Amino acid sequence: MLAIIGGTGLTNLPNLEITSKEVVRTPYGDPSGYLTYGRIGAATVVFLARHGYGHTLPPHEVNYRANIWALKSAGVVRVLAVNAVGGVAANLGPGMLAVPDQVIDYTYSRKHTFFEGDAPVTHIDFTDPYCARARALYLAAAKAASIDVIDHGTLGVTQGPRLETRAEVDRLARDGCSMIGMTTMPEASLAREQGLSYATLALSMNHAAGLGSSAEGIKLADADAVLKVGMEKVKLILARAVEMHAAMPADVRGYK
Ligand code: HPA
């Protein structure tokens, strides 16, 4: 099955015909909310709101392990995530979309692995943090929906919930980050630990601090307005992606 993890600005899918809701308990605690099962067209999908359905969980308090565990135990093989980000690269101004292919993780103190305690010592390969097949699906869906999406990019993941300083954004840019978000890690690596095919669609809702229209600070009301409009595009892409995923042979729906 395909899962969608919605981030900031995406707590429901309007075109999802809901069939059931399931509260899942996991050995790692409670997920951000119930799993919402439903259909988009003929395809079945499960939706989870990363920050809770009322957007009550900040990035550092999301129980990423419980979320991924719950989806895995529901029979999910692929996760299409959505992240709101700040744009660092010149071509990632507010409203632009990207399917990043790399990550730099600056987060700390998050429960970031299933392999601890009594679990056997296990190192996952994370050279390419996103599944190539899931990325290709996102890109093809965007093309089918005639929506511009930037292919590639490095998503720097900060701890939040505060936004960055100018100096931090300078450093992130020097490190090679083209965008900054707060939630793709440890979500992506936990998905890999569970063998899930995982990719994210990033929506730039603001220029990162100190850049462009954020030169004198990030105007949160403006960013919220961009988010609203941008998420409509995200929903169109997701609808196509769900259809395309359902039409794939079963052996290419998972992680490669
Ligand atoms: N920085 C980090 N995370 C974000 C930003 C940002 O500027 N905008 C949206 N999520």
Describe the fold and architecture.
The chain is an alpha/beta fold and 256 residues long. The protein contains 5 helices and 11 strands, in the order ββββαβββαββαβαβα. α3 links the parallel β9 (154-157) and β10. The structure holds hypoxanthine.
Brief summary of the model shown:
By secondary structure, the protein is an alpha/beta fold.
- Overall 3D geometry? globular
Number of helices: 5
Q: Which kinds of small molecule does this entry bind, naming each only once?
A: hypoxanthine
The profile of the biggest β sheet is: 11 strands, mixed
Low-pLDDT ranges: none
Structural class: alpha/beta
Computed Rg:
17 Å
Distance between the termini: 16 Å
Mean pLDDT equals 95
Quantity of strands, as a count: 11
How do the helices and strands follow one another from N- to C-terminus? EEEEHEEEHEEHEHEH
Salient structural properties:
single chain, 256 residues, alpha/beta, 11-stranded mixed β-sheet, 11 strands, 27% helix, globular, binds hypoxanthine
